[in-house]
Amino acid sequence: MGDVDITTSKWRIVEVGRVVIFGAGPYAGRLATIVEIIDHKRVLVDGPSEKAPVPRHSANLSDVSLTSIVIPKLPRATGRGFTKKRWTEEKVDEKFAESTWAKKSAQFQKRRQLSDFERFKVMKLRKQARFEVRKALSKVSAKA
């Protein structure tokens, strides 16, 4: 028989120490970490972030999205102080700020706040850039 290579899946799993982001509700857009798993639908979360803290409470897994950031070896049901200490040691806020998720979210929020005239200017600039790319591409294809 051939050799079997067993690897773990790339899916994000629900685990203690996993950083989550709230998608809806009063804490929408805020980060928290899973401190305890209550059952298959609920987790105990705590968000000791300086900018946007999330109090320790039970959250539905349908209200949060799992990120790829994990606080390694976080004990189950740790206190608020220890969780905050590990949060700052792992630099969770900085890691999330560097992620493409945060960058896309910031870009989306910036676009939502544009006025009608600013959206028009963005459209014109995108048309100009597209024209320049097509012009360069046609030159290259004409030479080939």
What labels would you give this structure?
5-stranded antiparallel sheet, Ribosomal_eL14_dom, SH3 type barrels, 41% helix, 5 strands, ribosomal protein, 4 helices, extended, 144 residues, alpha+beta, ribonucleoprotein, KOW, structural constituent of ribosome
Globally, the shape reads extended
Q: What is the C-alpha radius of gyration, as a whole number of Å? A: 22 Å
- Class computed from helices, strands and strand pairing: alpha+beta
**Please, how many helices?**
4
Looking across the biggest beta sheet, what order are the strands in?
A: 4-3-2-1-5
State the share of residues found in helices, binned by percent.
40-55%
Query: Do you know the CATH architecture of the domain at 18-99?
Result: Roll
Distance between the ends = 51 Å
Q: Please name the CATH topology of the domain at 18-99.
A: SH3 type barrels
E-strand count: 5
User: Which quaternary structure do these chains form?
Assistant: single chain
- How is the biggest beta sheet arranged? 5 strands, antiparallel
Strand content: 15-25%
Q: Mind telling me the CATH class of the domain at 18-99?
A: Mainly Beta
Low-confidence stretches: none
- The overall average pLDDT, rounded, is 91
What is the chain-wise order of helices and strands?
A: EEEEEHHHH
